[in-house]
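Moderator note: this is an archived Q&A kept for reference. The question asked for a predicted structure of one protein chain; the sequence and the answer are reproduced below.
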Amino acid sequence: MGDAMKSTLKRVGACVCVAAFLFGAAGSAALGLAAGPRSPGADAGLDSGDIILRVDGNAVTEAIQGATVAINLTIHNYGDMDSAKVNVMILYDDSNIFIFNDNLTVPVPAQDSVQYEVLWDTSNVAIGDHTINVTLTELQSGDDDLTNNRAFKDITIKPVPVPHVFVDRIDIQPAALVGDNVTITAYLKNDGTKASPIGDTVRFLIGTQLLPGGAKEYPGPLDFDNQTVAEVPYYWDTTNMQAGVFIIKVEVVSSGDRGEAQPITLSYPAPNVYVYRLEMDESQVLQGESVLISGKLRNNGTKAAADEEVWFLVDKATSPTMANYTKLVNVPMKDQDVNFQFSWDSSDAEPGRHNFTVRVPGSSDPKASATTSDLLVIPKTPQVNMTEFKATPGTVKSRETIQLSARLENTGSADAYNQEVRFFLNDVNTYPLAIKKVNVRLDVPAWANTTFVPDIGENDTMMDFIAVFVNPMWENETRNASVRVLTIVPQRPDLVVVSVEVTRDMVVGNEYSVVAVIANNGKAIAQNFTVRFDLGTELPYLVRGLDLANGQTMSVNWTVRPSMTGQNLRLKVEVDAEHSPLAEESNEFNNIFESINDIIVKPQPKPSIELVKVDPARKSYKVHFGDKAVVTLTVNLKNSGEEAGTVFLTVKEGLVVIVSENVTVGANTTRDFVYKWNITSAGTHTVKVIIEGQDAGLITSQITSVDLTEERQWYEPGFELLVVVAVLGFLIILAGRRRR
């Protein structure tokens, strides 16, 4: 702005010269210039170099708002005459705001200069670039050259220097355990215009909440070069925190600047167990052999593992299949090795490839599970033969037990399972007596056993028993062994129920005789045998300790008194030798006699008297006044029982008993009883008939009613007396009148 103004003044001076040239003396006179030669005068002047701005004695081109700027002027007089009176006017910018406007108090000698100082208070000057405008005016002697009377000087007014401290970065670990002491370091810089004062404060926050002891002073002053770094550490005790993700913020109190740290994740201390190594001591085994799986566990977590479950899984199992396939181990921290072992027995395993997995189910580590390579289980081959077959005893009686035993031996390399032996009598093409399956271990003989009880009737018999061993390793090949047993028939009785006599129709409570005829058709006496009578509804009746010689018969009686009714009952009579060696029978299939649904037990006969009807001779009666009606009642009783019975019969009207007596009705008959009923008052009369007693049936009472109506006549009893009284009265009255 100063250069522009100077350029303007130069153009003005040029114009003056041109005007003087064009207009001659007249023009010069008009501009105040002497036409032609003039006497020497004063010439006040200055340029920008003659304006020096100082703050605190130092030359400056800029000043802080509020500072006092000393404007030092060097005012020249280029003329030949002293300048007695010079006006100095100082403005800034184009605002016509005066800094100073006054006259010099001293003259400026010709061809000399004077120093002049003006103090400028910048408190109200706007911040920014400004131009100081100094104008000199010669007020008394005249000025020979007006082009040098103005000069300009630039100055910049700056704001009051203040620090601006900001958070450059925050260092914090990304994760920690609840209870740890976490160091949070804030790095501060100052990009202001002044060093930060000592004692400025930094606040450490979690969200918007100040952390305990989180107001920290940082060391100062901090240079405002935007490079010097101040470190402010804060030690955060997380003991009272919960697990989760948190964001730490750091705020500079003086500037209000706030920085945000990366999130920190707090978690509770926990173990992290993983399978560090897994080995298997064999790559293949024979079926039945064992393999050892061993390995090491480590824990890189933040807490020791106590009673950590370790699973041993076979093939595709998802959980342990045996109790000893689970172990509880303690695994310390810092990757200390903990050894484990599992043993697997292949005895019950299928031949082929198997693998094994060791898993720590409570760990989320990717290496919490490890699987071995495949183990090949090679099958063993059994070699089974039947080496012996025997039957004991060699001679038996009929119906004695024969023990049949086949011995199997295994000379192979593996146990044999479900080896089948079939037992036959006389011919292998018949249905087998028994089929037995046994497991044959290596070098341990196994016996396939069964029993047979012969029942040969009356003749001694020689029996051939055959054992057939079917070897599953030999297709369509068998091994047979046979043994012969002599079976003899001992002399034994044979009890038979020949006949039974019994009454087919029975009545509860009556006695009846049942007679059973027993015969001994055997070849020996029957001793101490029992006859059993059984009639469905009754407790069985036993007759014990009976003896009967062979070829003889005997009668056995049972007097039965039925206790309950029943229809289509069976009577069963059974003779039993009670399995005594002295009474064992040759044939026990003929010992039972049983009737077929043909016995009936009826209840005891008893009466059942019911009131059939109560029948009056008429339902309504009309009588003269004062007369009574005699009603004939017929009571009909029926006995549907099989015996005559007696009941107590009562006829009553209201509470008045007309008749009460015991009456008897024969079995399966109906009987009428006739009674007279006197009615003495008009109206409807109801009578009730009741029968009572243990012989009474279901219907025991009935009610019937009769209506009675009275009729009055012109001649009623007592009418004669009334007439006599009336006549006597009339005569007495008449006699009295005559006397008067």
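Archived answer notes: Residues 1-39 have pLDDT under 50 and may be disordered.
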